[in-house]
Design goal:
- It is a single chain.
- The longest helix is centred in the N-terminal third of the chain and has 25 residues.
- It contains 8 helices and 20 strands.
- A hairpin with a 2-residue loop joins strand 19 and strand 20.
- It is globular.
- It is α+β, with helices and mostly antiparallel strands and 371 residues long.
- The strands form 4 sheets. An 8-stranded mixed sheet has the order 6-7-5-15-16-17-14-18, with helices on both faces.
């Protein structure tokens, strides 16, 4: 595509906004179609943690996440300049902790796996962990320090992205897309024409183009937002995450004593109901790690739908001429926002993508999308 092409981005979450802002800064005429629904980006914890979340068999995702994390400091600085608002980036790092014997064994397996890939983390005993974060409880017996894994306040980042996009000339249109075809986006009341349409509609992306049917599924996650009361111990400065009795829990600090606790994970279709059992499990696991959380104020219990794929790799690239995809980021939307935006811009500009492809994504049965 040439400069000054018209681009319609379907989706107003972190991926859609990042793509729109980046494309507009490069000179494209950009419009965002936003259904206005509560989306996964609004619910997210905002962890930028490719190393702490590494798993055997997901080496491609680890490499992709690490490359995107490397871009985050400059992405955040440009975002703050472009919006006049804080980007929300937090640089304190991450601790992965374990409680019982099985949890500690899982930490050892993670450290060994990372070592086999040439990536090292610092192994800590319980006392060393509590020296770093005194509010953690005595049940925490082991930890891994991952200072390079960062976090971002998701709601600050979304506000900054919207403001930066508007300042760059992006237009916003309220409405839900029904279908995306080459050069057009069908809404309920009209059809929008453009040179290129970009599908970045999260869990709803699979409904918009035949090439995404069956490749994107909603993965429900319940999240709690809390705040330390004046009489309670403050939350940790770092992100704290890890297995508790086999269940993953994370605690991500926010300014002013805020804390995000998450997240459950269920294949439950498009159900966004917060369940009593989900709240119970999150609080019980978080209290095991951070006993003082029982004194915190509970501000919000909310559920969001992550856009999942079978291999946890996103779908980024051309579906057909005039239609690009930037979706399927599962739990890594904020982490992968910078590299996704760069990849889409490369496609729009006819350049090589920032990470070599093609790489299979989604169900692996269709035309592979390039990073």
């Amino acid at each position: 595509m040439q400069q000054q092409s018209s681009v319609t981005v379907v989706g107003g979450g972190v991926i859609g906004l990042s793509v729109a802002w980046t494309a507009a800064r490069a000179g494209h005429r950009v419009e965002v179609v936003d259904a206005g629904e509560r989306r996964a980006s609004w619910v997210a914890g905002g962890m930028l943690a490719p190393v702490a979340e590494a798993a055997p068999g997901e080496e491609e995702l680890l490499d992709l996440g690490s490359e995107s994390l490397r871009r985050w400091p400059s992405f955040a600085a440009e975002l703050a300049r472009g919006s006049g608002l804080p980007s929300g980036l937090r640089r304190e790092g991450t601790l992965v902790v374990g409680v019982d014997g099985a949890d500690r064994a899982e930490l050892d397996m993670l450290a060994d796996h990372l070592a086999s890939l040439g990536r090292t983390v610092t192994r800590l005993g319980g006392r060393e962990v509590r020296r770093l974060e005194p509010s953690l409880g005595p049940a925490v017996r082991r930890g891994l320090e991952v200072p390079g894994d960062l976090a971002v306040d998701n709601r600050l980042a979304l506000a900054a992205l919207r403001a930066a996009a508007e300042a760059a000339g992006v237009r916003f249109r309220a409405g839900a897309a029904r279908r995306v075809r080459p050069g057009e986006v069908e809404l309920a009341e009209r059809t929008l024409r453009c040179d290129v349409a970009v599908i970045a509609a999260g869990a709803r992306s699979g409904e918009l183009h035949p090439a995404l049917t069956g490749r994107i599924r909603p993965v429900k996650g319940e999240v709690l937002r809390l705040r330390a009361r004046p009489t309670a111990l403050p939350p940790p400065a770092r992100t704290v995450r890890g297995p508790v009795r086999g269940r993953q829990v994370y605690l991500v600090p926010r300014d002013d004593g805020g804390l995000v606790v998450g997240a459950t994970q269920h294949d439950a279709g498009f159900d966004e109901t917060v369940t009593a059992g989900g709240v119970r499990d999150l609080l019980a696991d978080a209290e095991r790690v951070l006993p003082g959380i029982a004194e915190y104020e509970l501000l919000e219990a909310v559920a969001g739908l992550r856009p999942g794929t079978h291999d946890n790799l996103p779908v980024i690239g051309e579906l057909e001429p005039g239609v690009l995809a930037a979706t399927g980021h599962h739990r890594n939307g904020f982490l992968l926002a910078p590299i996704t935006a760069d990849a889409v811009l490369a496609e729009l500009s006819g350049r090589e993508p920032p990470v070599a492809g093609p790489v299979p994504a989604g169900d692996g049965g269709g035309r592979p999308c390039k990073w």
